């Protein structure tokens, strides 16, 4: 998917999920999430071509202007919405699926103990509350919710809710056929929007 199509998708996702967003123009001009994502997408394309210095320069300039730090080595799907954004940190080996919502002060970071893959993998349609810290090469399953200020150092299964320090699963339930159908329908709709 090219840069313009991804940007259109990201803007549409923000408008759909943020009741304060009134128009695409407003999102493009006023939302630091879009500015950080655009810088990330450019920096990431340079990073995979091994222009590491230029990639990091772009990401650091974006951090200066938006307060959102996304390492250009991270892998981010379509439709990431970073609401308010200030203080968000996404590490080099982090992987983020499609249609993820992250609130301010979230860290997808390492523990300092791992080599190679050091950062979390976040599935599709995940919501991460303000101030949450997700640390290490763990997986957050599709449709999971992470509570505000949670510190997550263990796997979180799909369609679960994790809260607390350290985070614990407070709600885990299999989705009903109707809920799965609605989730798939939303995913299919998002594919068609592209």
- What overall form do the CA principal axes indicate? globular
Quaternary form: single chain
Cα Rg: 16 Å
Low-confidence stretches: none
Q: Which strand order spans the largest sheet, edge to edge or round the barrel?
A: 3-6-9-12-14-15
* Annotation field: number of helices: 5
Provide the succession of SSEs. Answer: HHHHEEEEEEEEEEEEEEEH
Arithmetic mean of pLDDT = 88
Describe this structure as you would to a colleague:
The protein has 194 residues and is α/β, with parallel strands linked by helices. The chain is built from five helices and 15 strands. It has a six-stranded mixed beta sheet with strand order 3-6-9-12-14-15. A five-stranded parallel beta sheet has the order 1-4-7-10-13. The longest helix is centred in the first third of the chain and has 17 residues. The N and C termini lie close together (8 Å).
What can be said about this structure in brief?
The protein is of the alpha/beta class and about 190 residues long.
Key features of this structure:
194 residues; 6-stranded mixed beta sheet; 5 helices; alpha/beta; 5-stranded parallel beta sheet; 21% strand
Describe the protein's topology.
Elements: H1 3-17, H2 24-30, H3 32-48, H4 52-66, E1 68-70, E2 75-76, E3 81-83, E4 88-90, E5 95-96, E6 101-103, E7 107-109, E8 121-122, E9 127-128, E10 133-135, E11 139-140, E12 145-146, E13 151-152, E14 160-163, E15 168-172, H5 177-193
Parallel strand pairs: 1-4, 2-5, 3-6, 4-7, 5-8, 6-9, 7-10, 8-11, 9-12, 10-13, 12-14
Antiparallel strand pairs: 14-15
Helix pairs in contact: 1-3, 3-4
């Amino acid at each position: 998917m090219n840069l313009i199509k991804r940007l259109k998708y990201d803007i549409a996702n923000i408008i759909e999920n943020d009741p304060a967003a009134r128009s695409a123009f407003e999102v493009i001009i006023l939302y630091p999430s879009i500015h950080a994502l655009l810088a990330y997408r450019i920096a990431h394309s340079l990073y995979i071509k091994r222009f590491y210095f230029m990639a990091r320069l772009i990401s650091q300039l974006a951090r200066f202007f938006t307060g959102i730090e996304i390492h250009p080595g991270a892998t981010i799907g379509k439709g990431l919405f970073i609401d308010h954004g200030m203080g968000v940190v996404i590490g080099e080996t982090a992987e983020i699926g499609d249609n993820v919502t992250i609130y301010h002060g979230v860290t997808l970071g390492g523990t300092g103990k791992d080599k190679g893959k050091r950062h979390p993998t976040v599935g599709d349609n995940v919501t991460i509350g303000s101030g949450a810290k997700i640390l290490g090469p763990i997986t957050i399953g599709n449709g999971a919710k992470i509570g505000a200020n949670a510190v997550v150092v263990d796997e979180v299964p799909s369609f679960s809710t994790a809260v607390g320090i350290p985070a614990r699963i407070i709600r885990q339930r299999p989705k009903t056929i109707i809920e799965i159908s609605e989730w798939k329908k939303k995913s299919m709709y998002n594919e068609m929007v592209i």
